[in-house]
Design a protein that fits this description.
- The complex is a heterodimer.
- By secondary structure, chain A is an alpha+beta fold.
- Chain A has two domains: 74 residues, Ubiquitin-like (UB roll) (Roll), CATH 3.10.20.30; 70 residues, Orthogonal Bundle (DNA polymerase, domain 1), CATH 1.10.150.
- In chain A, 34% of the residues lie in helices and 15% in strands.
- Chain A has a five-stranded mixed beta sheet with strand order 2-1-5-3-4, with helices on both faces.
- The radius of gyration of chain A is 16 Å and the shape is globular.
- Chain B folds into three domains: 186 residues, Aldehyde oxidase/xanthine dehydrogenase, a/b hammerhead (Aldehyde Oxidoreductase, domain 3); 361 residues, Aldehyde Oxidoreductase, domain 4 (2-Layer Sandwich), CATH 3.30.365.10; 142 residues, Aldehyde Oxidoreductase, domain 4 (2-Layer Sandwich).
- In chain B, a hairpin with a 5-residue loop joins β16 and β17.
- The longest helix of chain B has 28 residues.
- Chain B is globular and about 85 Å long.
- Classes of the chains: A alpha+beta, B alpha+beta.
- The interface between A and B is large, with 55 and 68 residues.
């Protein structure tokens, strides 16, 4: 076998659970979430920080998990797409994505949801410019972004009403 | 409540928004190995030596494959199988697979790649259409008859001399359409497994499981009965996942040899090498018109830069000629097409397959003609629009045609007539239309069997299973199938489970290409459901004492409409029907009608129906930086009938976005055979900041052969976007850029050359003697 780093025990706080995991210290948060914790809702489209598919919330802030080592995230609270729904009830943004057809192939969707939820957490009345700014780090190849913007607006409207 | 025509939430949305959808790379099996591929660093070279001994000896390496392990050619088109899964004695592009390593983990596989020794003997590299034609001494493939010409097509329909003699104006223009790639967000991935019985299962991200099934079986010599292809959710395709790739072959062979699973996931850079994207095409277009704009003759010549292998190129070269005739009344038409091999990743089908490039050229030329004749470009298109239920000069049968309605809708929505002459400096409106096939009329291997099959099975608990070989790549084909079955059986869409893309369980559907699935699989699903509905109605009729033809099915009930006492539940009817007839299932299939002329090449372009689109683009050009901004796109599309309006709008918006990217930003750029920008940062696919506002407008013409009247919506709306933007740029700056993408440097040059037209960059092509035509 190739010479490898000895695995290191690390503690990650993911989606409300505290998990111990043994992983190489050279592995990115993306790799550890997907491969060690089976949180495959976290996607990869480049592993170079270009596409945004791997976005997760780190202490409430959307971060690219492909550009972050898992060991760096040990003291943080991490939320992946799997952690957005509560007790099998969708987050309003997930619901809006489903209804508005904002997920076509769905591969970029987890990253967009993470960026969108981060926006809506502190702003339930975003302008289109603010929505674009919040989602500018996420690439989508299917939708032309139209339905995604509409879904964020629909979710914001519902969150204001709630 | 009816399901058809309603914006139903897609049935796969719930797994996709929660991260539960398992794409190919999300699959994990016990004892799974990991594969990586060694790719050529040379664009054109003889392979003198490939030594894998050191890689094989690395602890943790389980197997290494080279061409010696699978020395058989494959190719998606049966007559042009020119490619080995791994290069045999020659490499023809940078990125071509040479060897594969399977190891216990990715790091070990990656390290093993670095231990493989490859000795190349470089050959001259050909990267342009001009060089491919001129350098007859350098042959990329030995089999080509002349130079690097992979395929030549010459077709003439009518007396061209007479046509051009009749014309009051004959325009000749040269256009170049740059190559682009699909860049689906999901990189290609696959997992294969096999037990000791030798039965292989391959989960792979593909648009065409049936073709992959055939090609892998044939190339590896595995009986198709022992090879199963399963399509997980596919993270985008756009034409780039329509063939088997090296990783599919290697994964299957590893699983077969070792009886344990293996996964291959490509890097983003490798996806750029797989490519099969839009062909760069040079086009010479000559059109004759009368004073009033009536077309008398059109002669199109296309030169396709095909890259190193055939892929779908045989179809592509025909497609560059076939669909130009479907929008307007064209009495005479001549087409000369040629596809050339170059030392770059193979081109293939991308959304709009082969029709996008000549449509761009034609719509730009008609814009010039309209200006010369003093005609409004939109009114002009309306005037020469093809009639519904007519036949084109090249033998294509047109049925429903909403072209005029599409023109009227975008003209009204954009306030075209009022605004176009009153735009501020540097701002302009442009117009274009297009048409596209609703499914190819022929399979890629010609046969008499159906193009799509569906099985519907009813459980005695009321659940309905729909089985179809189709591949949902995000366009919503699974939801379409569920909607059709829900409509016919009157059940809730959530009572239906769709099982698609599994060559063991599902009947063949040819795949998600040529915008065929709604039309063909939709018709097949409808046929199967109607057989079951007849059994259910007979059962309900018996239970209710009412004649079957008085019954209808809706909301999980079968009964007399408007009479609540005269109805039974779907479950009761199903149980009665099962008691009478046995297990409830039915099959349906769809075969397109026999279409097309009797000439060689008549099989490309035929389709049971054509969609139509019109677009108005509004652009602005910065007077100092020449930065081009597309402000807004209005797109009206004749989709026959929108079975699910929100999904159809999504296809129009996504097509418009992709066309916008090709018009202004995207290009596959190479230097000496090396891809210059194989990353999502440098290959400029539009971000949410770049993408303009898109207004999608639906036109419904209710095609009599489509399911509930539906035609396609997934590809056609891309085609008019690019010329509409190009024409808008002209309206904005008064200078033409006759090549894509329209970048600031080209705008600057066009403005500089406005008063002194540049020399045609294709002078050499013009001087070629015209080939001898084949009269049809």
């Amino acid at each position: 076998m190739a010479k490898q780093w000895t695995k290191q025990l690390m503690t990650l706080h993911v989606n409300g659970e505290t998990l111990e995991v043994a992983a190489s210290p050279t592995h990115t948060l993306l790799e550890v979430l997907r491969e060690e914790l089976d949180l495959t809702g976290v996607k990869h489209g480049c592993e170079l920080g270009h596409c945004g598919a791997c976005a997760v919330l780190v202490d409430g802030v959307p971060m690219l998990s492909c550009l972050m080592l898992a060991v760096e995230a040990q003291d943080s609270t991490i939320t992946t797409v799997e952690g957005l729904a509560q007790d099998n009830t969708l987050h309003p943004l997930q619901q809006a994505f489903a209804e508005r057809g904002a997920a076509q192939c769905g591969y970029c969707t987890p990253g967009f949801l993470i960026s969108g939820v981060a926006l809506l957490e502190h702003n339930t009345q975003p302008t289109r410019a603010e929505i674009r700014e919040a989602l500018a780090g996420n690439l989508c190849r299917c939708t032309g972004y139209t339905k995604i913007i509409e879904a964020v607006e629909l979710a914001a409207e519902r969150m204001r009403g709630a | 409540m009816t399901t058809i025509g309603r914006s139903t939430t897609k049935i796969d949305s719930y797994t996709k928004v929660t991260g539960k959808a398992k794409y190919a790379d999300d699959l994990k099996l016990p004892r799974m190995a990991y594969g990586r591929i060694l790719r050529s660093t040379e664009a054109h070279a003889l392979l003198k030596r490939v030594d894998v001994a050191r890689a094989r000896a690395l602890p943790g390496v389980l197997d290494v494959f080279t061409a010696a392990d699978m020395p058989h050619t494959f190719g998606i088109m049966p007559t042009t199988q020119d490619e080995y899964p791994f290069a045999l004695d020659k490499v023809r592009y940078v990125g071509e697979p040479i060897a594969a390593v399977c190891a216990v983990d990715e790091e070990t596989a990656e390290e093993a790649l670095s231990l493989i020794e490859v000795e190349y003997e470089p050959l001259p590299v050909i990267t342009t259409i001009e060089d491919a034609l001129a350098r007859e001494d350098v042959k990329i493939h030995d089999y080509t008859k002349r130079g690097n010409i992979m395929k030549e097509v010459h077709l003439t329909f009518g007396d061209m001399d007479e046509g051009f003699a009749e014309a009051d104006l004959v325009r000749e223009d040269t256009f170049f359409f740059e190559g682009t790639t699909h860049a689906p967000m999901e990189e290609h991935a696959c997992v294969a497994d096999c037990a000791a019985d030798g039965k292989i299962t391959l989960w792979t991200s593909t648009q065409t499981p049936h073709y992959v099934h055939r090609e892998i079986g044939r190339t590896l010599g595995v009986p198709l009965s022992r090879l199963r292809i399963i399509v997980p959710p596919v993270g985008g395709g756009f034409g780039g996942k329509c063939e088997p790739f090296a990783h599919d072959f290697a994964a299957c062979l590893f699983a077969l040899r070792h009886g344990r699973p293996v996964k291959f996931t490509l890097t983003r850079e490798e996806v750029f090498y797989c490519h099969r994207g839009r062909h760069p095409v040079k086009m010479l277009l000559k059109t004759g018109v009368k004073q009033d704009g009536t077309i008398t003759a059109v002669h199109l010549q296309t030169f396709l830069d095909g890259g190193a292998y055939a892929s779908y190129g045989l179809a592509t070269v025909y497609y560059t000629g076939a669909l130009l005739t479907v929008t307007y009344k064209i009495p005479r038409y001549k087409f000369d097409g040629m596809r050339l091999y170059t030392n770059k990743p193979a081109c293939g089908p991308k959304r709009g397959h082969g029709s996008t490039q000549p449509r761009y050229a034609f719509e730009c030329q008609l814009d010039k003609i309209a200006e010369q004749l003093g005609l409004d470009p939109a009114a002009y298109r309306r005037q020469i629009a093809i009639e519904p239920y007519s036949t084109t000069v090249n033998g294509l049968r047109v049925t429903t045609c909403g072209l005029v309605e599409c023109v009227d809708k975008v003209v009204a929505a954009s306030d075209w007539e009022r605004r176009r002459h009153h735009m501020p400096t540097g701002r302009g409106l442009g117009f274009a239309v297009s048409s596209y096939v609703t499914g190819a009329g022929k399979a890629i291997y010609w046969n008499d069997m159906p193009h799509s099959g569906v099985i519907v099975k009813i459980d005695r608990g009321g659940g309905v299973a729909v089985l179809c070989g189709s591949s949902d790549i995000g366009q919503g084909s699974d939801t379409m199938l569920a909607q059709v079955v829900a409509q016919e059986l009157g059940v809730d869409i959530l009572d239906i489970r769709v099982h698609a893309g599994d060559t063991d369980l599902t009947p063949v559907d040819l795949g998600s290409y040529s915008s065929r699935v709604t039309f063909m699989a939709g018709n097949a699903a409808r046929a199967a459901s109607q057989k079951l509905r007849a059994l259910l109605f007979a059962a309900a009729s018996e239970l209710l004492g009412e004649p079957a033809d008085a019954l209808s099915a809706a909301d999980g009930q079968i009964g007399v409409e408007g009479n609540a006492t005269k109805s039974v539940s779907f479950v009761e009817a199903a149980q009665k029907a099962e008691a009478t007839h046995g297990t409830l299932s039915a099959v349906g299939s769809y075969t397109p009608p026999q279409l097309g002329g009797g000439f060689k090449g008549a099989g490309v372009g035929i389709s049971p129906a054509y969609s139509y689109t019109a677009c108005v683009a509004e652009v602005s050009v910065d007077p100092e930086t020449y930065d081009l901004r597309v402000e807004k796109l209005w797109v009206a599309h004749d989709c026959g009938r929108a079975l699910n309006p929100v999904v159809v709008e999504g296809q129009i918006e996504g097509s418009a976005y992709m066309g916008f990217g090709e018009a202004t930003l995207e290009e596959s750029a190479f230097r000496k055979g090396l891809h210059k920008i194989p990353s999502l940062l440098d290959y400029k696919l539009p971000t949410i900041y770049d993408t303009p506002e898109i207004v999608a407008l639906l036109v419904e013409t209710n095609d009599q052969e489509g399911p509930y009247g539906a035609k396609e919506a997934g590809e056609g709306p891309l085609n008019p976007i690019i010329p509409a933007i190009a024409n808008a740029v002209y309206a904005a700056i008064g200078a033409r850029v006759d090549s894509t993408p329209i970048t600031p440097d080209k705008i600057a040059r066009a403005l500089k050359d406005r008063n002194a037209p540049p020399k045609a960059r294709d002078g050499r092509l013009r001087e070629r003697p015209a080939p001898v035509p084949t009269h049809a």
